[in-house]
């Protein structure tokens, strides 16, 4: 029978892996990646060739030591960028930025310009001036500002971030030069995700450098946060996606009965990658390599049709821009393969959702990883000191970190026994635990040199290898030479959690520096004794945040409560707790956000939650009313007719027929009354002027009602004749590859 759903199924089944025009060697093999890697990036190597020597040097000194950029340098870079871009087929340029919509934004301008000569003739030429490179003024009134920039004074401007190279984005018929930018209001308030990340990197660098000086690393000039993002995503066939209003509007299936096969066979993870999918990955990676994004791994994830990509880590700002760009390109390339790429944290009920593990560390300008246990006793002690910094950061700022990973979608994942719980704890592994416990017990303080030596030579270098026991249930896990922040959701902009984490570390460093200074004064010259004493104190103070056990268990919830660790189950709870405890005040004290910016971000988070859950509820109500109930009505008519034909049988409630009619009728009634109460509840919630309260009610009253409506709809799905069901089913979306 021909129906849209059958056609979609047929289309999905008959698709072939797409090939694309990859660069090839004369013998037909694909060219090595190194021959086209970064081709679409205006990196420093290319700029060095194009810029006068002094201009290039002064750009370098801006990038390396933050000396202010001059107009002359901007003018010169603009001209080089224009020449490079135009010679590569670009017709337009755009400031590329990350407003608080969760997406990227761009406003294109053509290079083309008219030059009027002395004699009044118009000459057409391509142009990009220094000031056009430097800043641009998008019509800002339609981006979220959390109340900082009311629509009548809509001025906001984007400002070039020279620390990330410009790049070319290709579309079907042309190319555009993208200028990575920050987005700020006329008064200098940040309206984006990038600015706080940049500020937090600076603050982290400042405090880490000062702390390192006290530890004896006097020639470190700069410390940067490093970031490597493991990005999970789902693919769904485009034809099926289009037939589902819920996927189209919310990227999530709001209803859909579980297929008897879900992930119980555990056969997808690391399994053979389906041919259509690997064809997509290959084209995606090609695009990303040209953009200088160092994608390293690709594999199937745990859930069916779920996959992951991860790059080689980079400086946090660059790594974050690259992740945001990779998501954008992945969406576009997926469409060419007739897939839709879903970054939603929980597109399907009953199977794992998607996260974005942020692998994070700190590195000196000499390239030393500060969370690498190292080889010498000094490196070991420094490693332990930075480990203490991380423990303190998470212990002291757990609410802010919890808010930074919150959101209506991630709520469906965190704490659902597939992802880390909402309680923020730190996993360090057995071996480190025993070292920390010994330090707490005082062994280190008695004889620090010996202790460090013993650890250094015998134990710590083995850590990286030994630390393979992965605790998947921990939201923040040490994995040998970095931390893995696992609570971050797949659709998140990592700049949000990373700026909080950097600032939390900076604030821990500031306090530890001060305490160490006092000890050094008091103790005279023995630095190792002072450091060991400080570490002993910090490890003791932060013992409550360390947890090595099963984060999914109920015992942990009880234990965490005893330890005083917050368990903020959903976004409204996290936001309310943050407001009450002024959890982000430290960001203000550290100079990363102003009070107004903290408030604005809070308002935006509330607004997004309100809009998201409301959209989901309204979409669900509409689907049930216009798709589920009509299918049930058709089925009831058929069943009823059949029952009449078998007169007498149907009347008996306990006959199989009677049960079928009743089950269907009950489910229809439950769905209809459910939708009615859902709509009434929504109206009621939105009548309230207190938006935070409205959020709390959306989480605690509306979402449970949605679950009831869904349960009824899913029951109907299992009772209605397959041919009558209008929506692609789970089994079709997840198992037809
Ligand atoms: P695993 O699979 O053991 O978690 P991988 O080596 O696959 O580890 O790393 C996962 C991610 O962590 C990759 O993106 C990797 O580049 C990144 N990573 C490795 N070292 C660091 C570091 N020092 N700082 C930030 N990210 C890192
Ligand atoms: Mg990992």
Overview of the structural elements:
The protein has 737 residues and is an alpha+beta fold. The strands form three sheets. Strands 10, 11, 12, 13, 14, 15, 16, 17 and 18 form a nine-stranded mixed beta sheet that branches. Strands 1, 2, 3, 6, 7, 8 and 9 form a seven-stranded mixed beta sheet that branches. α11 crosses α15, α12 (398-404) crosses α20 and α23 (656-686) packs antiparallel against α24 (691-719). Magnesium ion is lined by residues 230, 357, 484. Magnesium ion (MG) binds next to loops.
Key phrases:
737 residues, alpha+beta, 25 helices, binds adenosine-5'-diphosphate, 14% strand, binds magnesium ion
Q: What percentage of the residues does DSSP assign to strands (E)?
A: 5-15%
Low-confidence parts: 464-468
User: What form results from the Cα inertia axes?
Assistant: globular
Count the DSSP helices: 25
Query: Main beta sheet, described?
Result: 9 strands, mixed
- Average pLDDT, rounded to a whole number, is 91
What is the count of β-strands?
Answer: 18
Q: Which structural class fits the helix and strand makeup? A: alpha+beta
Helical fraction: 40-55%
Rounded radius of gyration (Å): 29 Å
What is the straight-line distance between the termini? 22 Å
Query: What are the bound molecules?
Result: adenosine-5'-diphosphate, magnesium ion
């Amino acid at each position: 029978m021909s129906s849209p759903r059958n056609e979609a199924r047929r289309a999905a089944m008959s698709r072939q892996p797409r090939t694309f025009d990859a660069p090839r060697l004369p013998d037909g093999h694909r060219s090595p990646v190194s021959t086209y890697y970064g081709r679409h990036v205006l990196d420093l190597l290319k700029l060095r060739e194009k810029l006068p020597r002094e201009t290039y040097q002064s750009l370098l000194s801006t990038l390396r030591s933050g000396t202010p950029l001059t107009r002359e340098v901007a003018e010169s870079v603009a001209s080089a960028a224009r020449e490079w871009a135009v010679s590569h087929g670009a017709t337009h340029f755009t400031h590329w930025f990350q407003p608080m919509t969760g997406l990227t934004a761009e406003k294109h301008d053509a290079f083309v310009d008219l030059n009027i000569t002395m004699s009044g003739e118009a000459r057409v030429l391509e142009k990009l001036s220094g000031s056009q490179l430097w800043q641009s003024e998008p019509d800002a009134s339609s981006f979220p500002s959390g109340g900082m920039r009311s629509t009548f004074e809509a001025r906001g401007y984007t400002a070039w971030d020279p620390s990330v190279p410009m790049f070319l984005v290709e579309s079907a018929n042309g190319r555009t030069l993208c200028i990575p930018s920050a987005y700020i209001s006329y008064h200098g308030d940040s309206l984006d995700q990038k600015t706080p990340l940049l500020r937090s990197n600076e603050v982290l660098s400042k405090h880490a450098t000062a702390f390192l000086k006290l530890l004896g690393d006097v020639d470190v000039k700069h410390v940067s946060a490093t970031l490597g993002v493991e990005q999970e995503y789902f693919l769904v066939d485009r034809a099926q996606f289009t037939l589902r209003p819920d996927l189209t509007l919310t990227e999530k299936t709001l209803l859909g009965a579980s297929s008897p096969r879900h992930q119980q066979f555990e056969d997808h993870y690391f399994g053979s990658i389906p041919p259509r999918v690997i064809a997509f990955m290959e084209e995606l990676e090609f695009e990303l390599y040209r953009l200088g994004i160092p994608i390293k791994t690709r594999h199937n994830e745990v859930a069916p049709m779920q996959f992951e990509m991860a790059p080689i880590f980079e400086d946090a700002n660059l790594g974050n821009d690259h992740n945001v760009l990779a998501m954008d390109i992945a969406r576009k390339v997926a469409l060419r393969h007739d897939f839709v790429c879903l970054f939603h944290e929980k597109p399907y009920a009953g199977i794992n959702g998607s996260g974005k593990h942020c692998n994070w560390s700190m590195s000196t300008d000499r390239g030393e990883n500060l969370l690498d246990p190292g080889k010498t006793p000094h490196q070991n002690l420094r490693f332990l000191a930075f480990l203490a910094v991380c423990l303190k950061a998470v212990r002291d700022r757990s609410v802010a970190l919890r808010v930074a990973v919150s959101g209506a979608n991630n709520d469906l994942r965190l704490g659902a026994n597939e992802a880390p719980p909402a309680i923020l704890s730190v996993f360090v592994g057995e071996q480190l635990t025993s070292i920390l416990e010994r330090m707490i017990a005082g062994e280190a303080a008695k004889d620090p040199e010996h202790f460090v030596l013993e650890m250094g030579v015998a134990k710590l270098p083995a850590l990286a290898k030994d630390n393979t026991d992965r605790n998947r249930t921990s939201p923040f896990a040490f994995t040998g030479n970095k931390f893995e922040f696992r609570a971050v959701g797949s659709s998140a902009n990592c700049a949000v959690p990373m700026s909080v984490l950097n600032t939390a570390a900076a604030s821990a460093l500031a306090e530890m520096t001060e305490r160490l200074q006092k000890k050094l004064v008091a103790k005279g010259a023995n630095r190792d004794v002072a450091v060991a004493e400080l570490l002993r104190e910090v490890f003791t103070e932060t013992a409550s945040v360390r947890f090595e056990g099963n984060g999914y268990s109920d015992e942990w919830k009880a234990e965490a409560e005893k330890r005083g660790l917050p368990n903020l189950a959903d976004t409204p709870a996290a936001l309310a707790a943050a407001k009450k405890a002024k959890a982000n005040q430290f960001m203000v004290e550290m100079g990363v956000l102003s009070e107004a910016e903290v408030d604005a971000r809070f308002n935006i988070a509330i607004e997004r939650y309100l809009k998201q859950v409301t959209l989901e509820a309204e979409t669900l109500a509409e689907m049930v009313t216009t798709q589920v109930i009509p299918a049930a009505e058709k089925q009831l008519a058929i069943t009823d007719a059949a029952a009449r034909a078998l007169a007498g049988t149907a009347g008996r409630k306990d006959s199989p027929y009677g049960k079928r009619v009743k089950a269907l009728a009950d489910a229809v009634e439950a769905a209809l009354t459910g939708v009615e109460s859902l709509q009434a509840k929504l109206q009621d919630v939105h009548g309230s002027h207190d938006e935070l309260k409205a959020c709390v009610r959306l989480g605690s009253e509306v979402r449970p009602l949605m679950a009831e409506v869904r349960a009824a709809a899913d029951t109907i799905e299992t009772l209605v004749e397959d041919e009558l069901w209008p929506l692609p089913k789970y089994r079709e979306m997840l198992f037809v590859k």
